Amino acid sequence: MTTIRLELDRSTPEAAVRVLQRLPGVTVRVRRREPRLVVDGRAWPLLLVPGGLRPYGQSSAPILKSLASGGKVGLVVADRLAKHVRRELETAGFAYADGTGAIHIDLPGLLLHVEPERSTAGGGTRRPAGMGVVGVRVAQCLLGDPTRKWSVADLARQAACAAGEAHRIIVRLEGEGFLEASGRAKTLRRYVRDPGALLDWLATVPSARRVRERLDVSLYARDPMALVTKLSARALEADVPYAVTGATGAGALGAPVSTAVPITLVRIAPDVPSLAEAAQLLGVEPVDAGANMVLIRDVGELGLHGRVSSGSVYVAPPVRIWLDMLGEPRGEDAAALFREAVIGW
After folding, report:
1. How far apart are CA 277 and CA 272, in angstroms?
2. Which helix (H) or strand (E) holds 218?
3. pLDDT, tens digit, 9 for 90 and up, residues 146-177
4. Given 160, 177, 207, which residue is the final one in a domain?
5. 192 and 231 share one domain
6. What is the number of alpha carbons within 13 Å of residue 99 lying toward its C-beta?
7. Which range marks the domain in which residue 261 is found?
8. Choosing a second label site near 226 at 20 to 30 A (CA), which of 184, 232, 244, 305?
């Protein structure tokens, strides 16, 4: 049986060490010596590249490979590496490992390749019990600032919910292994242990992606950005709170992920009496066919809470944009690119 050992120096970031320690069949040791990879007693010097996703794309993979000169094995370690990034690293001859369980090491006499068990669309992640929209909003707030150490009161204020509800969700997520605690009593705080894992899990929560009420509408504009600019002016005049989401929302944040966005998703505040009335106030036409926009009743204010201004347009938070993109046609690939470029884990 092949034995694989990673010997790392003490300057290796703790997050990278945690990712590597979770890999099955791999032993990790941290000591005062040059990093190396040891397979069945044979050793290679190791260049460890820890961090997030953004440096690792088609253009930078060859650069990373050139850094691993002198017989070094280059190993990229991250919380999550998108599938297309993993393929690019393989082509460039780089090894990788991430927090989803993906690993690839290709050496003379050794080929270790494991695909991750969970999917960004939730296909391989355990399906959770039900959670209400307030709980989803709390989880979105946690993911909106994943490095922050939260008290219950701070999280309740940020998520605009009761302290008891915030505490209930914290306890649940802590039990699921997504949150860790520090301090005691009045100094007790929780923080997100693995943002990528929590985001993948949230995508499997039915209420996080369910659309309870929608209305197909049409508004003439030359392209999606012109469409939402026109919509924004009308919403301001009519005092209709909204947030653009999905692929158009991604584009409004400066991260276009598709050459064509046939339908623009717009979340409308739930206190507007009806989507039909919202359409009338916004001057858009309900249609049975040929829609270029969908109005969505934003139950729980999952898109409006924490919305951001991008120029003259209000846009849903990035986590909500990603979740809504998953439900669009060919949305998973576009969502993966948006996640890499904007969310980063």
Report:
1. 8
2. strand 214-218
3. 889 999 999 999 999 999 999 999 998 988 88
4. 207
5. no
6. 24
7. 211-343
8. 305
